[in-house]
User: Which sequence fits this backbone?
């Protein structure tokens, strides 16, 4: 079961043992990223470097997102989690 972490009121809080998206354990402290919205700087959760870089690649570009899905059909579950994760924070953009 994934420990998806959502509403933090913009404050990081305690770091979990695993990524909020893929649920992989954090192997080293330098692999942990404080994910935030680049538009409003709002803290969203703790991610591994891999998930953070993928989100950065697809978050604001629907065409990149679709290409990512075509290249990685076996990881569609991840895109669903990303959509949910980002949707939980969408209210900060309005």
Assistant:
């Amino acid at each position: 079961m994934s420990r998806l972490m959502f509403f933090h009121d913009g404050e990081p809080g305690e770091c979990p043992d695993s990524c909020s998206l893929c649920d992989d354990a954090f192997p080293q402290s330098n692999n942990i990223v404080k994910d935030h919205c680049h538009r409003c700087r709002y803290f969203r959760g703790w991610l591994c470097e891999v998930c953070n870089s993928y989100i950065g690649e697809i978050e604001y570009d629907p065409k990149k997102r679709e290409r990512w899905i075509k290249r990685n059909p076996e990881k569609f579950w991840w895109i669903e989690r990303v959509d949910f994760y980002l949707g939980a924070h969408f209210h900060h953009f309005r």
About this structure: Residues 76-88 form the longest helix (13 residues). The helical segments are 49-58, 62-71, 76-88. The chain has one domain: 1-88.
